[in-house]
Design goal:
This protein has 207 residues and is of the alpha+beta class. The chain has a single domain, classed as Metallo-beta-lactamase, Chain A, CATH 3.60.15. Helix content is 22%, strand content 35%. The chain has 5 helices and 14 strands. The protein has a 7-stranded mixed sheet, covered by helices on one side. A 5-stranded mixed sheet has the order 10-11-12-13-14. Helix 4 crosses helix 5. The longest helix has 14 residues. It is globular. The two termini are 33 Å apart.
Length: 207
């Protein structure tokens, strides 16, 4: 299976601002969108509002139209990862423990790990959200993990004290991912591999 990053996720936190009732501004924000080309065409996450044209152009460069995407996998339900799902009307969609079919049927599983897909394995990686999952693919003799927000360079470097959500679950999921991954494609930020992978793994191993 071929792994292609259509869009690299961005999450520019501009910090606190002096405006009534507004704590901070994050602009722009969009998840990574990954195309998995194999027996079926799969997308992992679809990004946020305002990035539709960029996503469609990236698909076009791969010779694909939206209707040629067979399956969309959402690592979790936050809008910056799911807002462009509507572009792929013919695709089955996996969101948390549900398998959503185009003809209005939903199969709800006990665990995301029970969902079987061609060439891809889903694992539960809770922490950021309770039902977060990651996608694993073997390609070119490497193990790729599309982690959503279960792992990210900025989050890890900020330290476990800065973790949001279920900290204990986040740490357990991060350790699981770093144990199996040769390459991590996070929801936001650059691809984690090579020296960066080793650097971040050392931090996570000490948690």
């Amino acid at each position: 299976m071929e792994v292609i990053v259509l869009m690299e996720g961005t999450h520019n936190d501009k910090g606190p601002i002096e405006k009534k009732n507004i704590i901070k501004v994050i602009d722009p924000i969009c998840s990574s969108v990954i195309l998995l080309k194999g027996e079926k065409n799969l997308l992992v996450d679809t990004g946020y509002y305002g990035f539709e044209d960029k996503l469609l152009n990236a698909l076009k460069k791969q010779g694909l139209k939206p209707e040629e995407i067979d399956i969309v996998v959402n690592t979790h339900r936050h809008f910056d990862h799911t807002a462009n799902n509507h572009l792929f009307k013919k695709a089955s969609q996996i969101s948390e423990m549900g398998f959503w079919f185009p003809k209005k049927r939903i199969d709800v599983y006990k665990s995301v790990e029970d969902i079987k897909l061609p060439g891809i394995k889903l694992i539960a990686t809770p922490g950021h959200t309770k039902e977060s999952c990651s996608a694993i693919v073997e390609s070119n003799k490497k193990t790729y993990v599309m982690s959503g927000d279960a792992v990210g360079e900025a989050v890890i470097k900020a330290g476990k004290e800065a973790l949001q959500g279920d900290k204990e679950a986040y740490i357990k999921s991060a350790k699981k991912i770093f144990e199996i991954a040769d390459v991590i494609i996070p929801g936001h930020g650059k691809i984690i591999e090579g020296d960066l992978l080793k650097e971040l793994k050392k931090i996570v191993d000490k948690w």
